[in-house]
Amino acid sequence: MSAPAAASWLGSALGTRVARRMLLAFLLLGILPAAITLGVGQHQAREALLARHYAGLGESIDSLTQVMIERLIAYDGMAASRIERQDIAGLMADAATPFDRVARLPVSGAPAWALPGQPDAPPAGLAAQPRPQAGRASLAVLGADGPGPAEVWLLRPEAGTAGAPSGSTLAMRLNRAVLWAGTDLQAANATFCALDARVQPIFCERPLPRSVLDQLGARPANQVLGRVAWTGEEDQSSVFGEVFLKSRFDTESWLLVLTQPVRIARTAEQQLNQAVLPAALLALMSALLLALVAVRRTLGPLQSLTQATERLAERDFGHRVAVSGDSEFALLGRSFNRMAEGLAQQFDTLGALARIDQLILEGRPAREIAGIARDLMVRGLPGAAVAVAVADEGGWWLCQGEGGQRQDRLLPAPEAQWLDQSTAEGGRVIAPEAPPGAQALRPRPDLPARLEPVIANGQMAGALLAARDAGTPLTASEQALITGLAGRLAVGLEAARRAALLEVRANIDSLTGLPNRPNFLEQLGERLSRAQAEGGRETVLFVDLDGFSHINDSLGHAAGDRMLGEVGRRLRETLGERGVVARLGGDEFALALSAVDDDAARAQAEQLVATLARPFELAGANRYINACIGIASYPDQGSDPAELLRHADMAMYRAKAKGQGSVAIYLADMQAEAVRRAELDTEIRRALARGEFLLHYEPLVEARSGVVKGCEALIRWQHPERGMVPPGRFIPLAEETGLISPIGSWVLREACRQFMEWRRDGVPVSVVSVNVSVHQFQRPDFVDEVREVLAQTGMPPSGLKLEITESLLMDEPREVEQRLNALAAMGLSLALDDFGTGYSSLTYLKRLPVDSIKLDRSFLTDLLESQEARDLARSAIGMLHALRKEVVAEGVEKPEHRVLLAGWGADLLQGWVFSKSMSGPAFADYVLSNPIAPLGPAGATRAGARPPAAQSA
Length: 953
Description:
- By secondary structure, this protein is an alpha+beta fold.
- It is elongated, with a radius of gyration of 43 Å.
């Protein structure tokens, strides 16, 4: 039927033009708004359902990341326990263990299986993996970009295990079946994938397209949770979460990804369409039929329905259509009211849950959250008395009441104790015969209450209670509302607990409980803003402990950690409420004080030094440390937190230069000095890489015969711009920065190489002497390094003499003695340098395998002028000979010195009286020319008579 014919038929059926206008008005004001309302409601419902679905996937991926990190920590703990018990075989004792391969990674060379019976050979890629630090573990992923399955290896140092090579590391491959167990127990039709830091697959139930991996790799650095939509055979959505591994395993984060077809997320939307659309169409058809029968009779209700629909489109769910009778329009009105009521309840629930989530994320008190949950229960359970109990700071809070009446109270001990000890299952009913603490929780004393527990982190965190007359029990939908709300509260409270824990970890030093560096800088910034507004001062004290590394090395890191905790406690107690104390890291602390001048700041710093100088009781004995403190103040010595802290740090280094336990205030020249030191440090590193260092050699001469027996290797720096740089300009800084170790290693190797070259050229040199720094000697691999250099250069052990200083003997004498014995057993000569400038026990010198003692040049300072100096030098030589030590005198600059020292029995002499230091080829020519004349019988040389000073001796 054409449109004009249909209009003519309707006109004849209705009879009047007004009726046709009324029908047109019904069509315009009834059906069209209803269709719009249905579309808006469907869109809002679809968005809400999708958001809820993906929130569920987000919770699943969040749970997976937590499970994965806890699983890795558990595996690491198992490995650490086995390694500590030296039970390497136990790592693969049975099929239940998480490891199926164990390899040993030596310091150098290829990895090898730690246990027999392993097929093939360990992956070559293990050798290139960075070694974890002592006491820590790391993770390595091999083959993530290869054709085969990726392998996850747990690396842990093997130090302390009997029979383990020095510095070796154990690599344990994680069993894929154990590591990824349970990842398939996810949402319907969801596939799991784990990616490494380079977004390469570690384990995937189904490969992700390259485009998806590129999107994941290009995500913002601070996005740890998110979703990526993509299209394959069908539309897909991938929800990802980041597993943080850096703090525990020193390994970049992994990504865990759950992928699900979009159609799964839209299932609820389709079900909603199947239920709502037919009902809506039926209602509209009924309304149209009713209009055809009695337009005039239904005009009033139609207007009411139109108004209600318009309000519903504006989310005014409180308006209802007034209907009467049992006509089709009345049925449509009642259906509309029920739909509006259902949507109102659903949106009210979603809004309340969103508000609860917002309060949890804002860290608001739990009792505020309980109030929102209670109001939601009041609206969702009409006619019921409800209550919500939650654990909050200070105890348990109960929010209860009926309708608009609300009462909040802190639960007394019996009720709180019953909740703390309760393991109530869902749906439990608290009857009158329940314990007194449970009875008091009922919203109405005369009615039994249904209790739904809120379980977070395995403990009772809250409870929902509802009571209604027996004649009107809770419906299934009302019970589902209570159960769903309890689950939502549990998830939210647990997420809040984790967020609070992460907040604490991000701002508080776990060892001392003090603010960490970022937290301190933030607080310092606030204090500086306040000082700027008030025109005040703010002072920063930078504290660095002297000798703390000795505590760690001698007593272990556990003792060092206890000392750091005690240091933090003393600093906090000394400062009190007058400022902020923070641990910056390592053995460095910082304090912030307000409104103190330089004199008061210095006095406070000296008080802190005295406090820290008191003994610390560790390992059953008193231990001592000192502290150096640098001071910088706003506004004179810094305008922002970073600058103020940096200047205080510079002042601390100036204090260290003054000696242990010193205090220094920042001065402008410290900045220039710091820049010069930084530039020199960079140049030293560049010189080491470019080969700008070279060795000069100073002859070691027999006192009477004048025969050159050997030489001492002395480092020089041939700077490309400043020419020859003496060692006094760069060696102290190299010792501070630790560069002295690689420099010392180069000197040792180069001296041995040069000695072997002299041997090949026929130069009669017996020994080359090499100085060893304290840092170099204390390295655990020093003895192995010497053995390796001898082997690689072909150097005979008897041709190498190592010189150590007296200060080395004061630190860990037992360990020093063991290393010296190991070196002596190799056939090396050992010399004690700078004798007389420090402290040496004669008994200790007698026991040590030291062949030579080098008298410091200070013995010769006034040797020719002072009889006391001559008596002292002669006595020292006699005493050292009594200990059967070879005596070497350095700093011999005058012929008279040689005559005296030779007369007293000194074995070897060294100094400018013979020659200054020279290059390797020049030294060879010097030895071959033999320019030194022997002393005559009376002490004079062939070229001259005995000097007057010698006669007076």
